Amino acid sequence: MKQALRFFNIRTKNFMNTDFIKGIVPPIAAPISADESVDEKSLRDHIEFMIAGGISGILACGSNGEFYMMEEDEMEITLKTIVDQVKGRLPIYMGIGAIRTKKCIRIAKMAQRFGAQGISILQPMFIKPTDDELSTHFRSIAAAVPGLPVLLYNNPRVGYAIPQSVVEDLAHTAQNIVGIKDSSGDLTQTMEFIRRNQDIGFKVFAGKDTLIYPSLAVGAVGAVTSTSNYIPQLVYSIYKHFMDGNHKAALEAQYKLNPIRLATDKSSFPVATKDYANIVGRNTGNPYLPNKCSPPAQQENLKQELVKAKLL
Questions:
Q1: What pTM was computed for the model?
Q2: Please, what are the domains in the chain?
Q3: Following DSSP, what letter does each residue of the chain receive, concatenated?
Q4: Looking at the predicted structure, is the pLDDT value of residue 86 above 70?
């Protein structure tokens, strides 16, 4: 039965266009005003800044977009603004990270209704579901939006990783689960997501900015990168050089990026993304409370990394 399901799925995935799932995709840092309402003007400006820098798509309401702070109406405003501003120039993905399956389904349907080209589903945080529960969670959300490409999102920050066996089964039996973003920071994990599912063209995005080049080298199709919120040209150059066959230039760009990304680890997650964006002149505002901007000494540290890289 399982073999039959795999054969069915391999064939039906071919009818779903996933060619757009590639390149450099920022989890957009959504600007907010002093009262924590979505700053639509700054959001539109920020989108144009990143598009000019060469990005390949936009992920709305991702981890660096502070999705866990947002009410559903704020998610809707953010997504609708992004879709309206992009006007079909790039694919748009919607991040989904709620614990309750029913809520995730509601957000997935919102994403489909307002024109997202794909969704990305984080494993539920706080609880630690069994493999069967986790599989049912992902499968139920994907089934609620047939025809919409679904990416899983493996982020051990929630307290556990998505098991390779769960990903492999879903990839081969759930028609519209077509890829994964791997933020484990473990290249072996990334390689295994690729190796186990290469027979169906499963798309794997790197989720660690410091591992864009090596992930591409083992078969990833691109990367979802917080750093492309503020230095998109440099981040995109890693991908562009690699795809052009200039591996030396791609690796040099990766090494230039790494100290900038590693400096964010001294800030509480994910405030350094907005800190950096504000430093380079983007008006992304403060993080949602209780998070705060990094203290002055860390702000200076972030700034100096950009100075040393001759990016400021």
A1: 0.93
A2: 2-244 (3.20.20.70)
A3: -HHHHHHHHHHHHTTS--TT--EEE-B----B-TTS-B-HHHHHHHHHHHHHTT---EEET-GGGTGGG--HHHHHHHHHHHHHHHTTSS-EEEEE--SSHHHHHHHHHHHHHTT-SEEEEEPPSSS---HHHHHHHHHHHHHHSTTS-EEEEE-GGGSSPPPHHHHHHHHHHSTTEEEEEE-S--HHHHHHHHHTTGGGT-EEEE--GGGHHHHHHTT--EEE-GGGGT-HHHHHHHHHHHHTT-HHHHHHHHHHHHHHHHGGGGSPTTHHHHHHHHHTT----PPPTT--PPPHHHHHHHHHHHHHTT--
A4: yes
